[in-house]
């Protein structure tokens, strides 16, 4: 249906857009204003059924945006981070990243497409020419701007097209939830991970250098040995994360030289096992002085006395190194009798 087929009285009223335009050139105005071409009315301007179809289309796009936003949240919560899918011709992709990108793109596109379709089919498309004016706004201009704003609000039909208004508000209200969900990547929440390590009852103490289980005879008096839990290998994906909590210092002292009662009870024939991770900022401790039984952190010189519960005797470290209770199994190998009683490193000092 064309606007030429509609009786003149059914067409929307034309607006005066001349605003003093000069149509004939003269000495004062050498350039004539050609004016605007005749306005062609859209089918939505003259057919309410067509306008309602456009309204439903815009509402559908906003609804698609809402569904895509919910799909984004569902994908983020339910898809495992290590799951991958094959997408031709790109290849293998992370299933979560693909789903998040797809749903977020659809949500944004549907809002944009709905707004564009709304503007092109239902909002006023009347061309208006306006004269240039000084930069400063005169009272008349302010009055005109306010009047134009009110007219635009009326022509947008926001109050009349309640279906568009409600679905648009729904899409705009739901979409920010995508950003809220992304805040979860500041985590993930550690839960109780910082409270525990790979050490547990029965785990063998494995020499970091030889990758062999340790026997008491392998640890000489005055020596310093580094150990890791049985089963933790350097080619493991989480090796660095786990060794940063589970690394051990093994030192053998004369039992008579151990001053702390609990340290003596948790040792085996003078062999004591302490966390290698400094309680200041988490540096690995590696400097041992066998005459004084002191270990020194090379980063900030925190010094711990291994003969007295690894308490801090110098430096900025806030508390003693956690001790691992050890024993010997039936095969004669050193084993852990549980996990550390305190969280290792500088993260926090007490279990909550």
From TrEMBL:
InterPro entries named among the record's database cross-references: QcrA_N (IPR045603), Rieske_2Fe-2S (IPR017941), Rieske_2Fe-2S_sf (IPR036922), Rieske_Fe-S_prot (IPR014349)
Localization annotation: Cell membrane
Protein keywords: 2Fe-2S, Cell membrane, Disulfide bond, Electron transport, Iron, Iron-sulfur, Membrane, Metal-binding, Oxidoreductase, Respiratory chain, Transmembrane, Transmembrane helix, Transport
Bilayer topology annotation: Multi-pass membrane protein
Membrane-crossing segments per the record: 58-79, 99-119, 163-183
Domain Rieske: 240-335
Region (Disordered): 1-39
Coiled coil feature spans: none
Family: Belongs to the Rieske iron-sulfur protein family.
Cited function: Iron-sulfur subunit of the cytochrome bc1 complex, an essential component of the respiratory electron transport chain required for ATP synthesis. The bc1 complex catalyzes the oxidation of menaquinol and the reduction of cytochrome c in the respiratory chain. The bc1 complex operates through a Q-cycle mechanism that couples electron transfer to generation of the proton gradient that drives ATP synthesis.
PANTHER family noted in UniProt: CYTOCHROME B-C1 COMPLEX SUBUNIT RIESKE, MITOCHONDRIAL
Protein's name according to its UniProt entry: Cytochrome bc1 complex Rieske iron-sulfur subunit
